[in-house]
Predict the 3D structure of the following.
Amino acid sequence: MIIIACGLLFLGILFYVFYPERHVEEQHQKTRLEYLRERKDVLYDNLRDLNFEYRAGKYVQEDYATQQADLENETAEVLAEIDVLESQPR
Amino acid sequence: MPTFGSFALLLALALSGYTLLAGAVALYQIAMRARARVAPERLAETARRAGIGSFIATTAAAFALVWAAFNNDFSVAYILHHTNRALPGPYKFAALWSGQEGSLLLWAWLLSAYGFVLRLRHKVDVKLTAYASTILAGVQVFFLLLLNFAAMPFSLVSGPVPQDGFGLNPLLQYPEMVIHPPMLYLGYVGFAVPFAFALGALMMRYPGEKWIHITRRWTMVTWLFLTCGIFLGAHWAYSVLGWGGYWGWDPVENASLMPWLTGTAFLHSVMMQEKRGMMKSWNVWLIFSTFMLAIFGTLLTRSGLVSSVHAFAQSSIGTWFWTFLIIVMSVCLFTFILQRDHLKAENKLESLVSRESSFLFNNLVLLAACFTVLWGTLFPVLSEYIQGNKVTVSAPFYNRVAVPIGLFLLFLTGIGPLLAWRSSSFKSIRKNFVLPSIAGLAAAVVVIACGVHPWEIFTTNEQGSFYAFFAFSLGAMVVTAVSAEFLRGAGVISRHTSQNLFASMVQLCRRNTRRYGGYIVHFGVVVIFIGIAGSAFNQSREEELGYKQSLNIGPYRVECQSYSQDSNANYDTEYALLDVYRGSKKITQLAPEKRFYAASQQPSTIVANHSTLAWDLYVIYAGKNPDTGQPIIKVFLNPLIAWIWIGVGIIVGGTGVALFPNMTAALAAARNRVPAAAQAAAAVPARGGD
Amino acid sequence: MSKLFRLGRGIVIVLVAVLTMGSANTAVRYNELGHKMMCVCGCNQILIECNHLGCPDSDRMLGELRVSLAGGSNDDAILTAFQDKYGPTVLAAPMLTKFNIVAWIVPPAVLFLGIAATVILVRRWRLRAAAIPASPRATEFPAMRERIRRETQL
C-alpha cells in the first residue's frame, strides 16, 4: 500500500516535470526601449506626485518650479530617446 | 505512513536539487549563449516544474506527519514526544511545529509553498523568476538536507511502541499557539523571496528597478506576517505565561524582532530606489541581511548558543546553520563584488532636509535598533569569551537602550511625511511643521497636567513616566502630521472634483495605496506605542483570598466566591471564582486557574483577564497557601494594553490598503471628469508615486 | 576659577541628593531591586515576575531581598551581595563595571557614529550634485515639455 503510494507520487511528479511541453516561455533580455518606458512611467509618477504635493501645499512656489524643471528635463530626455527608438525600423 | 513521509522528503530533496542544478546550468547557458543539446529554455522549464513538484512532495511529507499525529502513530519518535491520545485535535495539528523536526518541516513546506506561487506566476518576468526560482531552490535544498539527514521527523522509536505519547508542552496548548508559529515562520521564510529576487536581479544585472515593483507585494505580505506573528506571540505571552507582561526581551523574541527591523528598513528604503534610483547597494544589503538574520534567528534558538525560555526545540544542528549562513554570506558577497558597478546610483541627494534623507535616518535608526537587539542578545556570549563569565542582558538593559531609539523612530515617523521629496526649503518646512509641533506641545502639557511627570527619571530609577510622556506627545505629533497629510490630499481632490471630503479621502487612498496605506500603518504604530506607554502605570497586588474576602485595585474590588479543584484526562486544575465589582455593581466573574498536565507532568497558568479600552484587570492564580488551603491571587491592573492589539489591527488594515493596486491615472482622471486630461492620460498606465 | 569650582561642587551635591532621594521607600526599592535581578531557576524571568508553580528559587530569593532591605544595606551593596552569592547572571542587566560598561556604551555609540556618518555622506553627495550644473537642454523642447505636463495632470 505504502509502496504504491510512494510509486504514484514519484511517477506523477516525474511525468509532470518531464512532460514535453510544446510552448516554452522564452527568457528574453529586456530591451532598451522597455527599460526607457519603465523609466518614463516612474518619472511621470514622480511628476504627478510633485504636482499633487504642490497643490496640497507642501512646496513653496520656487521649490516647486526648480523641481518640476529638473524632472521635466529628465523626462524629456527619456521621451526623446523613446521617440528615436520607436521610429527606428526593427 | 512514516515510510511515505521519508520517501516524500527524499523526493523533494531530489527535485529541489534538480531545480537548483538544472536551473543554474540553463541560466548559465543562456547567459553565455552556450550551445547545448537540450535547448536551455526547455531545461529551465523542467527546472521550474521540478520546483513545483518539490512543493507537492513536501506537502505530502507534511501531510504524512499530521496524519501520524492524528492517528496516534507513536512508532514515530516525533509524534511520541509531542502528542498524546488525549490531546485535542487542533493541538495535534500544532504538534507539527512544537518540536525541532516538525518546525523545520514547516519551514521547508512554507518555503516550497512560496516557491510554488513564485514559479506559477513566472510570466511576470520569465528570466528574473528563473533566477529567483533557482536561488530559492538552493535554500530549499538546505532545509531538505537537514530534514533528510540531520533532523528526521519520521525517525522511528527503537524497541516496543509505547501506548501513549508524552504530550504537548502545556504552554503551547493555547488557541493562539496554533497560528502564532506558522505566522512567524511565514514571515521568516517569506523574506527568502525578496532575497532571491534581489540576488537574482543582481546576478543577471537586471536593468532598471522594476524588480522592486515585482517583489513589493511579496515583501509587504511577508512583513505583515512577521508583524502579526510577533504580536500574536506577545499576546500569547500575555495571556498564557501570566507574568502580566507581553514582551520579555527573550533571545527568541529578539530573534524575531531583528529581521522585522531590517525588513521595515528595507520597505522604506526601496522607495528611494524605485523613485529615484538611489541607495541600490544599501537596499541589496538590507534584504540580504534580513534574510540572513531570519536564518540567524533560527540558528540562535535552535543551537543553544543563548539560553531561552523558548527552548522548545534545541539540538546540535547549529553547525548546519552556521555552514549555510557562511555559504549564503559568501554567495552574496561574491555576487556583490562582481556586479557592484551595476548598483551605481542614478541620482544624488539634493538636500539634507528632504524625504530622502528622512528615509536615510529612518533606516539608520532602524538598523541601530536592530544592532542594539543583536548586541544585547549576543553580549552574554561575548562576555563569556572575554571576561570568562556569562552575564544576563534582559529587560532593564533594553528599557534603557532600545526604548529611546524606539521613541526616536516614532519622532521620525512624524517628521518623514512632512518633508517633501528631493528638498524642502526652510519656508516649506515651517509651513508644514507648525501644526504637528503645536499638537505635540499641547499633548505634552495635557500629559503633565494629568500627572505624568517626566522629570521623575532624575529622582527615581523609574524611566516609565519619562518614556510615556514622550510616547504621548510624539504620538500626538505623528497623528496630527498623518491626519494633515490626509486632509490636505483630500482637500486637493475635493476642490478638483467637488466631491465630499470622505469620498475624496477614499479616492486619495486609491490613487496611491502604498503611501496612504503606509500612513495608516504609521497611525497603527502610534496606537501601539500608546498601548506600550500604558505599562508605565501598571499596578499589581498579591493576596491570599478566603471565601468572601476581597482586595481592591484601581477602581475594582475583587471578591472570592469560591475555590476548588477538578481533573480530566488531559490535566488536573485548581481554580478560584472571583466576582469583580466596580463600586457596588458587579461587572464580571473571573476564574483564574492553575493546571497540571498529566502527560507532560508540567504545570501551566490560565490567566483570567477582564479587558477594557482603559485597562486590563489581569488575574492569576498564584498558588495555594499550604497551611490554610486558600488561594493566593495576584492581580494586575495594566492600563491601555488593549490599544496594542487595536494598533496591530490598524496595521493589518493599512497594509491591506497598501497591497491594493493603485487606481490608474487614467481612471482617476476620468473620475475627475476632466475630459482633456482623461484623453491624454488614457495612454498612460500609471502607478502611484511612492 | 574657585567660583566655578564651588558651583560645580554645588551641582554635584544637588545631583547626588536628587539621585539618592528616591531610594527612601522600602516597598519601592523592593520592587525596583526585584526588577533588577533574575530568578535563577532557569526560567529566565525577572525575579519579581517569576511566577511559575513551585519555583524552587524565587520565593527564597525574594525573602533574602526583604531581609537585606530590612537590614538597611544600600542598593549597590544588595546587588553585589546577590551577585557574589548567585554569580553575575543574577543581575538582569550588567552593572557599569570593567568590561560590562561596553554593553551600555556600544549601541548609543553606533547610533551616533551612524548619524554623523549619514550627515557627512549627505553633505558629500550634495556637494557632488551641486558640482554638476543642471542641463538647460529641455528648454529646447517646449513641445515635449507641453506633452509631459499634459500627460501628468492630476
